[in-house]
Structure formats: C-alpha cells, structure tokens
Amino acid sequence: MKIIAHRGASGLAPENTLKAMTIALSLGVEAIEIDVQEADGELWVFHDRRLERCSDGEGVLSEHSQSYLASLNAGEGEAIPTLWQVMALITGRCELHIELKGVNTAKAVAALTQRAEAELGFTPEQWVVSSFHHPELARFAKARPEIRLGALTASLPLTLAQFAEELGAWSINCDVDFIDQALIDDAHARGLQVLVYTVDHPLDQQRLAQQGVDGIFTNRPDRLLAQAHS
C-alpha cells in the first residue's frame, strides 16, 4: 500500500511548505500530495480558500497580489511556496500528486508539468492530478491526456465509483470517514486504484490494507512508513 505524504510531512512541519516537502523526501516517501491555487498569474501551494488558518495573512488567497502572498509567513518562518518551487525541490525524486483547488488551475498546471519534465527530470508517469472540481479535472485531461487523474470525493456516491470511471480517472480518492468495502470493490472492478485521505492512525492503516486499499494520504508519513515496514 502506497504511503503518500499529505501536504508534505504536514504533521511534522507547516503544511504545504518547502520544509514539509523536505522532511517527506528525507523519510523516503514514494509520493507527496499538494494543493494548488491560482492568484495574480501564479500557482501557489496552499490548501484553504482563505489565508488565516495557515498563514499570517488575511482574506481570500485568490484575491491577493504575488507580492503580498510572497511576504506571508506560512508557519515557522516558511513562505507560501509556488508550484514551481515545490517541483524544483523534488526534481523527480518521487511522485507528485497535485490537487487543483478550483478554477483557473488546469491549463497552468498542465503547462508547468511539461516544463518540469523538460527542466527538472520528471516524467509524465510521476504525476497524479486530482480535484473535487470535476469540470476542472476534465479540462486538465484535455490538456494532458497522458497524465493520471485522481477523482476526489468527500461522500459515498449512490453510483459508487461510476463518476471516476466517467472522468477517465486512474484513481478514486476517498474520505476515510466514508470509505467502505462496496466502494473499494466497485472501484477495483472498474480498473480504478483506491486512495484514502487522511489516515494518521496505524490501526486505520491496518484496516484499510486488509480491505484492499491501494494507497493512503497521511500527515505522518514517518509513523505509517514505520508501521508498513514493521
């Protein structure tokens, strides 16, 4: 079962910062997941719509200038990184799962993945692009059809994994609160991988492994990697 560092090693450093990415890489993770938003012509690695929880800024991220966002403290003196800064740090050393947060991200992320393949040693096989915003995910698929898609859901759909299959996704990315055996089995029957967020407890890890889940997103990759290797 693949262990994916959720927003980097976000249980050990401020989430979605270069420090969290560096720690995740030092732990030897196979994959890192990040969140990407667009503001003022730049792609920023930040989860929330608003700035308050994860920085000393105020207001809606997408409404601010590059200079303002670059000046903020995202915790422990870390800046809010750009997507390119995260890519330049990782340099193809692990998979990068990029969650598109809302509109105006698909085209720009598609272009940057191509640049990272040309300049930073990534391959198309090292990306997974996901979103709750399924129209934006479909737009990304048109731009880069060779890249794997992760169809995110925070619910248990009536038609189980059908929505992910219709999107042409590689994986269904599910909330640990709603995952069940029927959804796992249906996804696998449709040829989909099953990835579950956010899993920080070893007992949850064991249960999901027994159910046949293919990967988990965790804030504590140190803890769950140790469990997986024990």
Give an overview of the whole structure.
- The chain has 230 residues and is an alpha/beta fold.
- The protein has one domain: TIM Barrel (Alpha-Beta Barrel), CATH 3.20.20.
- The chain is built from 9 helices and 9 strands.
- It has helices at residues 18-26, 66-70, 83-90, 106-119, 134-143, 162-166, 181-189, 202-211, 221-229, and strands at 2-6, 31-39, 42-45, 95-100, 127-131, 148-153, 171-175, 193-197, 215-218.
- It has an 8-stranded parallel barrel with strand order 1-2-4-5-6-7-8-9, surrounded by 7 helices.
- Residues 1-228 form the GP-PDE domain.
The CATH superfamily name is Phosphatidylinositol (PI) phosphodiesterase
Low-confidence stretches at least 5 residues in length (pLDDT < 50)?
none
Helix content: 25-40%
Shape: globular
CATH domain topology? TIM Barrel
CATH architecture: Alpha-Beta Barrel
How many independent structural domains? 1
The strands making up the biggest β-sheet line up spatially as 1-2-4-5-6-7-8-9
| Structural class by secondary-structure content | alpha/beta
What would you report as the Rg, rounded to the nearest angstrom?
17 Å
The largest sheet is:
8 strands, parallel, barrel
Rounded mean pLDDT score: 97
What is the CATH domain class?
Alpha Beta
Helix count, per DSSP?
Answer: 9
What are the SSEs and their pairings?
Layout: E1 2-6, H1 18-26, E2 31-39, E3 42-45, H2 66-70, H3 83-90, E4 95-100, H4 106-119, E5 127-131, H5 134-143, E6 148-153, H6 162-166, E7 171-175, H7 181-189, E8 193-197, H8 202-211, E9 215-218, H9 221-229
Parallel strand pairs: 1-2, 1-9, 2-4, 4-5, 5-6, 6-7, 7-8, 8-9
Antiparallel strand pairs: 2-3
Helix pairs in contact: 1-3, 4-5
